[in-house]
Amino acid sequence: MKRKVVAVTGGIGSGKSSVMDILRHAGYATVDCDRLAREVAEYPEVVEEVRNLLGGGYVTDGRLNRRAIRDKVFSDDRLLARYNALFFDNTLRLLKERIEEIQGDVFVEISVFYAFEYPWDEVWLVTSDEQERKRRVMARDGVSAISADEIISRQRICSDYTVNIVNDGDLELLRRRVEQAIAETLAR
After folding, report:
1. What is the pLDDT of residues 95-104, one digit of tens each?
2. Span 112-140, mean pLDDT?
3. Overall number of domains in the chain
4. Could you write out the DSSP letters of every residue in 33-77?
5. What CA–CA distance (Å, rounded) separates 87 from 85?
6. pLDDT tens per residue, range 146-166
7. pTM higher than the cut 0.90
8. Domain encompassing residue 131
9. Which secondary-structure segment (H or E) carries 166?
10. Is the CB of residue 156 less than 8 Å from the CB of residue 114?
């Protein structure tokens, strides 16, 4: 049987990371595109490109000030697109390398689904109530309600998915839903 490469996507605060934790604890290989992007953010050439795009105030001691950058780029669609473009090619290259290193099925957490063209075998969309997502983002990231709303409103959510995992209960319910999705995906 051919191995599966499954994208796990959804809006900020939907519970993608919780789904990935469940998959990891079940013994599946996982890759996190946000972590790959953080690796790319360490590349000196990317830091310099961000400095050129946004100015020196967004780089401190050769490192990107991610919170200040987020506040700046999420308020301007064109700037956000230009900023994201600095990361996408390098992140996709790293993603392909990581997937090739893995022998079995692999699940990839990807926040910005449309950023990467990849031949996914399946796409899982994690969804949750928007007010719950907002609450999670505010608690996790320490941002205001207005900032959380702005981030949520600017995200483009995948509409072409194979499985929808609704995260509207406790962790045990989410675990059961993930187990069901695994069974269905691996049976196809």
Report:
1. 999 999 999 9
2. 89
3. 1
4. HHHHHHHHTTSHHHHHHHHHHH-GGGEETTEE-HHHHHHHHTT-H
5. 5
6. 887 887 777 888 888 999 999
7. no
8. 5-187
9. strand 163-166
10. yes
